[in-house]
Amino acid sequence: MQKRVHSREFKLDIVRQVTTGQKRPAQACREYGVELEQFCGQLALENQILKKTLQRLESRSVTR
Question: Domain range spanning residue 18?
Fold first, then answer.
């Protein structure tokens, strides 16, 4: 099975629909043919990276 590659705009559109409450995650995944586990796993990874980056930025601003 070949892995599909989605554009950044496509991914952002799905995330916007879910975060604004326009669609539930499972609904968006069904409609766009995205695996829920893969989608949630990717979001979890991105959130973890963003949190770490934010913590680093906050610690830099405190030390200045």
Answer: 8-63
